[in-house]
Amino acid sequence: MIYHYCAIDSFVPIINSKQLWMSDLEKMNDPSEYNLGFNIVISKFGEIYPEHVPWLKYRHAKHSNRVLSTSFTKQGDMLSQWRAYASNGSGLSLGFDIEALLDINKHIQSDEVNYSKNFLIEKAYELISKHKVSESSFVMKGFNTYDLSLAHELSKLSIFYKSEFYREEEEVRLVAYLSDDSVIHSKQTGNKIEDGEIQFRVSKYGLVPYMGLQFCGENKNALREVIIGPNSSFSPKDVKLLLECNHLTGVKVVSSNGNYR
Question: With CB atoms counted within 10 Å of each terminal CB, which end of the chain scores lower, N or C?
Answer without folding.
Answer: C
